[in-house]
Design goal:
By secondary structure, this protein is of the alpha+beta class. Helices cover 31% and strands 22% of the residues.
């Protein structure tokens, strides 16, 4: 993005709090979900103020998808719900009212053309996340939404006699409101402003918080030899996640070895489940390097191939990437210069078991500042899925990552942010109008 394009968007706005300008709906957080809520609330006729503790809107959105913004996915509703695991049904109503086709149409209306890539992933044609974020900001400002940056919310104010929202307390003043949407995000990428303030605010109001943990993140492993494989990517492998020797989930696709452990698409997906139990059980990864072949098929191939005098290390390139060969030789404990016709049946079984079950002990997950989304958040049992309103506090709404919802990679999480924001904004506007 050029400086000229970014400078065309105003970044500051003086706070107003006179009786004639009392904000009816306050959105806490100017991320993807908060801006969606603000825009929809304004379209529904509400006076809207957005309070953002950072110095810029949509900072996390601007780096999403490695700076390209994978905004949604073309998957069917059933598959979308499935991508969120056991909490997916909570989103059924929101997705039914504002889904991927609606989001794509919105961005087209805002001048952001999109394209579909592998796996149904939807990106802006420009491959620039700033285009998405800037379009959202221009949209809400054009609707008259006030955005106040560098404004941190301390608490939500309630009426003395009832559990009803009457305003928001910042560290400078109290702002009256008829409805408040908490769209503060999770704990991931804290440098973008995701500091967990929403959890604190919700907890102070009596909401249960499911412990927030990093999700869609790489994994640390105990084995030192992975450091020698740093940068090695594997395609068409199967990774299985074991908890106390019990298989709990598996994924097929691509992975990557790093200096600390493993990463890549299938590892990130498995990390969602690992985040729920890490530190409570013994977690292991089993990597099947040859998932297309059964152990018996590999055995038949080795028996057929191990008839010559070629050295074991010179045969392995037919099975493995070259960078993996020295480590594999150590793991199977077979001399690299041993002629393959001298490999015993027991050694052959070791080769097969290592190819089909390369074990790694998970020592932990990478920290929140490296994770893509947060697992955990405000308990969904305390939120009305049709309106995103709190079941405890009238006029209080939640949207986006602050809620206990998270999905696999592929645009699902951003769609949830936009959908819940849209519904929360619409519902908050209706609530604000009915209270006057």
């Amino acid at each position: 993005m050029s400086a000229r394009k970014n400078d065309s968007i105003p970044r500051t706005h003086s706070l107003s709090n006179t009786p004639n300008e009392t904000p009816r709906v306050i959105i806490v957080g100017a991320g993807a979900s908060g801006l969606a809520a603000a825009g929809r609330a304004a379209e529904c006729g509400a006076n809207v103020v957005v309070l953002e503790r950072g110095d810029r809107t949509a900072r996390k959105l601007r780096i999403a998808g490695k700076g390209r913004a994978n905004i949604t996915n073309t998957a069917e509703l059933h598959d979308f719900i499935k991508a969120f695991g056991e909490n997916g049904k909570f989103l059924y109503s929101a997705f039914s009212r504002f889904f991927s086709n609606d989001l794509i149409a919105l961005f087209e209306r805002l001048g952001v053309h999109t394209k579909v890539e592998r796996g149904g992933r939807v990106f802006p044609e420009s491959d620039d996340a700033d285009d998405v974020a800037d379009a959202l900001e221009r949209w809400v400002r054009k609707l008259g939404v006030e955005i106040h940056l560098k404004t941190r919310v301390k608490s939500v104010e309630l009426a003395k006699d009832t559990a009803r929202v009457i305003g928001v307390r910042t560290y400078e003043r109290i702002l009256p409101a008829d409805a408040v949407v908490i769209a503060t995000g999770g704990i991931t990428y804290p440098k973008t402003g995701s500091t967990g303030d929403g959890y604190r605010i919700a907890a102070e109001l009596g909401h249960q918080i499911i412990e927030p943990k990093p999700a869609l993140t790489a994994m640390n492993v105990a084995e030192d030899w992975v450091k020698r494989l740093q940068g090695l990517g594997l395609k068409n492998v199967e990774a299985k996640l074991f908890s106390d020797q019990r298989l709990i989930e598996k994924e097929f696709g691509e992975m990557l070895f790093t200096h600390f452990g493993v990463s890549g698409p299938i590892i990130l997906t498995l990390s969602r489940r690992a985040a729920q139990i890490v530190g409570q059980t013994n977690l292991e990864l089993s990597i099947d390097l040859k998932p297309a072949l059964s152990a018996e098929q590999i055995k038949e191939r080795l028996i057929r191939d191990f008839s010559g005098t070629k050295a074991f290390k010179n045969y392995l390139p037919e099975l493995l990437p070259r960078k993996l060969i020295p480590v594999f030789i150590e793991l199977v404990n077979i001399p690299g210069d041993l002629p393959i016709n001298r490999i015993t049946a027991a050694q052959r079984r070791t080769i097969i078991s290592t190819l089909k079950d390369l074990r790694l002990r998970i020592s932990g997950l990478r920290p929140a500042d490296e994770a893509i989304v947060t697992a955990g958040g405000v308990c969904i049992r305390e939120i009305n899925p049709k309106t995103m309103e709190s079941k405890l506090i009238k006029g209080l709404y939640f949207s986006g990552e602050v809620i206990d919802i998270d999905a696999i990679t592929g645009g699902y999480n951003l769609q949830a942010a936009f959908s819940t924001g849209w519904i929360a904004g619409e519902s908050a506007a209706e609530s604000a109008k009915s209270s006057n």
